[in-house]
């Protein structure tokens, strides 16, 4: 599934993977017909060949990473950014993404001058401390604004350390 960043699920700890499975099993089943296809579509092959799909290398192991204690600390923020795959849109060094098929996420280095509350508020409201509206095509702030305060505070701490 190269167009869906399914590889980010590899960044979840076993505890979080178990919680996701438990949640899915608790949902009422839905009857539907899903056509199974093998391999990449022609479009996906072309997009991959021209570098439009950000494929990642396969990990050395299928063992999930260890659990990280949830808290407003940089270590937990790194974990959240890992499973949210912040580098996918904002670049490996968080200095801005390349765009293409993905949103061209802006540099996150500018938040170093923000307060923690500013960061949380920006992701909850879509407005930066300077009054700029975040472009939802570049930063899906509404989705990330649903993270709880502890997770957002931890992400802020992680990004400040970059």
Descriptive labels:
162 residues; mainly alpha; Cytochrome Bc1 Complex, Chain D, domain 2; 7 helices; 40% helix; globular
How are the elements arranged and paired?
Elements: H1 14-26, H2 42-49, H3 74-84, H4 86-90, H5 116-125, H6 141-144, H7 149-161
What does this structure look like?
- The protein is built from 7 helices and no strands.
- The chain has a domain at 74-161: Cytochrome Bc1 Complex, Chain D, domain 2, CATH 1.10.760.
- It is globular and about 50 Å long.
- By secondary structure, the protein is mainly α.
- The protein has helices at residues 14-26, 42-49, 74-84, 86-90, 116-125, 141-144, 149-161.
Shape: globular
The succession of helices and strands, N to C, reads HHHHHHH
Helix content class: 25-40%
Q: DSSP helix count? A: 7
A few lines on this structure:
40% of the residues lie in helices and 0% in strands. With 162 residues, it is mostly helical.
């Amino acid at each position: 599934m190269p167009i869906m960043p399914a590889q980010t699920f590899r960044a979840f700890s076993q505890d979080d993977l178990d919680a996701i499975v438990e949640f899915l099993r608790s949902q009422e089943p839905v009857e539907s017909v899903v056509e199974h296809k093998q391999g990449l579509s022609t479009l996906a092959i072309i997009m991959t060949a021209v570098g439009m799909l950000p494929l990642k290398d396969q990990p050395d192991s299928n063992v999930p990473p260890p659990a990280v204690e949830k808290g407003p600390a940089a270590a937990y923020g790194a974990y959240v950014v890992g499973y949210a795959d912040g580098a996918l849109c904002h670049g490996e060094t968080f200095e801005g993404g390349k765009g293409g098929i993905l949103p061209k996420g802006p540099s996150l280095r500018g938040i170093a001058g923000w307060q923690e509350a500013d960061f949380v508020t920006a992701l909850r409201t879509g407005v930066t401390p300077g009054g700029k509206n975040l472009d939802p095509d570049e930063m899906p702030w509404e989705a990330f604004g649903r993270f709880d305060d502890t997770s957002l505070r931890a992400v802020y701490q992680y990004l400040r350390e970059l």
